[in-house]
Amino acid sequence: MEPDTVNVIFFTEEAQENPNFSEMRSVINKSPTLIAMINQLPYDNLISFDAGTGSFALTDESGSVRQIVIDGDLFQNSNYSLPEIATLLGHELGHVELPGGLPDWSTATNPDAAAAIGLQAEAVALVNEYQVAQELGSQMYTDISAGYSLQDELDELTARLGDEPGL
Ligand SMILES: [Zn+2]
Q1: What is the pTM of this model?
Q2: For residue 47, what are the CA distances in angstroms to 86, 106, 142, 146, 158?
Q3: Separation of CA 8 and ligand 1 centre (Å)
Q4: N or C: which terminus of the chain has fewer CB atoms within 10 Å of its end residue's CB?
């Protein structure tokens, strides 16, 4: 049986000491996608809120996740709410846990092919970010940071297809 709340062992001690951690955990617990993806991480202490590093996900050579960083500075930035930051966590988890989420550069034979591979991986992460935003009733982090509403387009597409974008 899947646990229905997020297991905090997957966050570093430093992340758990972030003043926003307990509120952030409550937000995460409203997203079944985030709960499932975090609880199936292969190791403890993978998610950190380091400040000033940017947000990213790292894997080892075999594609196994090694680190997920959400920039701790985002918590001090009044542009972003905790649910919006949680959608960014969904984005990074999409990169490391979903098929096609990581770019496979080995198949790129020219710069155009490399660009297409990068965009495809980004699309996988964005759809996961959208899914989390739906569950949290939140705007997507990427929409705010990019100043472009992909979410509106995905809403429209969802309405037209009569279903959620598939994953
Ligand atoms: Zn991305």
Answers
A1: 0.89
A2: 12, 27, 19, 24, 31
A3: 24
A4: N
